[in-house]
C-alpha cells in the first residue's frame, strides 16, 4: 500500500519536472531567436502593402 501511495506522488512529480526541464530547455535554445517579420512596404503601383511577406527559406536575411 505504501508503494502505491509513493507512486501516486512520485510519478506525477517526475512528469511535472520533466515537462518543466523540457520547457526551460526550449526557452534557452530559442532565447535569441528573432521572430519579427519584415516591415510591409507599398507596392510599385502605390497599392496598400501586403500583410504577409513571403521569402524563400534559404534566402539571406537583411
TrEMBL record:
UniProt keyword terms in alphabetical order: Membrane, Transmembrane, Transmembrane helix
Protein name: Uncharacterized protein
Transmembrane segments annotated in the record for this chain: 6-28
